[in-house]
Amino acid sequence: MITVHDAAHACLMEADPARKAACVRRLAQDFTAGCLAMAKGGELRPVPDPGRPPRPVLVERHRLPQRPVKTLEGRLALAHALAHIEFNAINIGLDAAYRFRDLPEGFYADWVRVAVEEAHHFELLRAYLNDHGRDYGDFPAHDGLWEMVRRTDNDPLIRMALVPRVLEARGLDVTPGMQVRLRKVGETRLVEILDVIYREEIGHVEIGTRWFRFLCAERGLDARATFRALLSEYMAGRIRGPYDELGRMHAGFTAEEMEDLRALEMETMGRLS
User: Fold this and answer.
1) Is the pTM of this model over 0.90?
2) What fold, for 72-272?
3) Which terminal residue of the chain, N or C, has fewer Cβ atoms less than 10 Å from its own Cβ?
4) What does the pLDDT look like over 59-80, one tens digit per residue?
């Protein structure tokens, strides 16, 4: 019987976005039906890059042009940037299901579900682009999300701490303000798409929170202290508000962790001043 890990790897390495989304849905159906086995250990194939189309062109983050959302071109660029994030997020869910072994079955169920929902988010944004004569790949993008995936591929605890609880949680922080700007220019469709993404991303951050705490408890680690130490090690100088405190609390953050985020941000500002 094929394993969930091998099935996830096959979807991970699929380059065509539409076929990748279809592959993810088959993976979820087969997993739910009990058609996929759990591997014990096993050799991991390195994944320096997931399957992805030849475009968009990937550039350094600072080389991406700023386009105001008051113009249609700016809104299309925003939709493309969000689609790129969601495409990467499909691969993040698949990589977690492929890479990390000997965890409870619920871990794989959660990350397969994440991949399915991220595929839906990507399709919503791609449809928006298509309806305006554009497609995924028409604007440049950066590779920051996958860089962090590569940096955390040796330990599920570090992955859970830094990818869903930092990078994806940042999406919760910026979405409400983004929606305010879009409403001001009458862009209701993107606002509605962001409503869907925001609701489900809270669940994705909560999944990261739950498995991070599970792994901390399994290793006898204090979750709060461990999270702060990982932020200092991996995200020095990159923690900044404003924070969507309500969304983060729904996703499992504690009041003490929010205090730690603000304290780390203040420390960074103090070093820079």
Assistant:
1) yes
2) Ferritin (1.20.1260)
3) C
4) 988 888 888 999 999 999 999 9
